[in-house]
Amino acid sequence: MNIEKSKSKSKSGKSKKAIGITMAAVMVTTIFVIFTPAAFGQPSVPPGEEGIYYMVPQNSSATYGNTQTMDVWVNSSMTIRSGTVTIETSDKTCGNITDAGWDHTWNSGSAITNPIDIPVVGKRAVLGFSDPSEHPPGIYHIGNITVHCNSTTCCDVNLSFIPGMGDSSIANSTAEDGVGGQNGTFECLGAAAEPDLLVESITPNGGEMFANESNNISATIKNNNSTADAGAFNVSFEVGTFSKQVSVAAGLPADENVTVSVTNPTIRTAGDSVTINVTADFNGGVNESDESNNASNITKTVVNNGYKNKSFMGMDSLELFEHDEEMYGGITYNVSGTKDWNFEPGENHTRIHHIDIPAGMEVKKARLYMYWYDYWYNTPPGCLANLSVDFNGTTFIAPDAAYTDQKGFGDYNTPKGTYMYNVTSQVTGTGNYTVIIENIDPTNNTAILGEMLYVVYEDPSQGSGNMT
After folding, report:
1. What is the dihedral of CA 8, 10, 13, 19, to 10 degrees?
2. Is the pTM for the entire model greater than 0.85?
3. For the domain with range 2-188, which CATH number is right: 3.30.70.1050, 2.60.40.680, 3.40.50.1820, 3.40.50.300?
């Protein structure tokens, strides 16, 4: 197109140029929609100006590697036919302009040859627009620019309209006026937050791997990022030759955890060493900020479960001490004594047992059962009670039979027991029997409970065939 220019003065005293335009183009009907400034909060034309450019949105953002497109508009107070707008970023290393485009309702059949330019490698965008006919004052869409987040760390840039003739202007068939714009900002948010899945804990059966049974193993998985949720993932359990994956189909929100479990059917022996390996996001389906902390493991020594009876561990639950033939008689017993949970070395207790034997009956057998457990503050695996028992003047340093047990793992893993003393020769019939118990261990406390004197009597004149 051919342009002839002559200077004139605007109402504000600014220099203006009258323009005569000879168009060699095919005229195509163009439809423009005029908006009022109040419709969408557009800026008003400043006093003394003929128009103002602006962006929608005025302030925008994107994460690293992503872009945001802003529409460019003009609010013109004079009739408008063409114009040029220049937008510049304050720091292209943070946010650089990667694209620009004009609204193709402009320039229908016009001869403008270079309406879009992005010079200085992303620093500045220049949009030109024109139309064969003039349009009344109002708001018009010019085009758009695209800004790219170019930094892995958070930063901000100013998106500024370069004002004045040669950079940003609007024109009609009689005048061209240099105008400014409503500047905006772009925030480069840096690298997008990603979840971080890690194995927070591995817990078999409350802390132990038990012999002679299957074992339940639980793992707590945490998303260690405070803002990014994790999508669906798998958790892998590997214990020796056993391997199983558990799906967490619902994913895991930021800064939360989930516990998943498997049952390991492998039967093991007490004393075996077992390593449990757990891996979160085993199949690598979740992009994470740290891919090196998905796996964890623990090693446990297999123990017997002392809360279950000995037959569960391949042992006899009851041990036969002695067995009597059939006889004509009966039993009697007496329980005496109170608990002393802190029975110290050198300390003693006296208990009195009263026994009634029916007339004509004789004592066949008598047993004193002493019940105790280890002092809780003794260091595991604890200590067996070391007791001296004086029964009616007869001293027993060691029991005739001892029955002890302990759970075998964890806290308070100290022994408990029953000592049995054969006092048949000391029980002669009805009467009171005095028992003095002393802790003869040189260093360890113990805890004593009550005790029982148990007596079996018989009628010497009757045989087993006379039992009724």
Report:
1. -30
2. no
3. 2.60.40.680
